[in-house]
Amino acid sequence: MFFTNRLLGSTSWFAKDPARASMPVVMDPPLTTRQAARQAAAVLPGVRVRRLLFWRYLLIWHKPITPES
Description:
This protein is an alpha+beta fold. Helices cover 26% and strands 12% of the residues.
């Protein structure tokens, strides 16, 4: 149906919202990846930090195994 409408030119391919006409504002991240890694290491010893797309990061931490007493 979308393809047919596109070929006939009867409607646009998608609805355009005039309120979203401008690009989003890019803001500075609150922490860099290094700063987040330092703060995470202070709380979770042995944490690993992986960088992801678009300035995201992933914290990987495994709870240490403690012998039961």
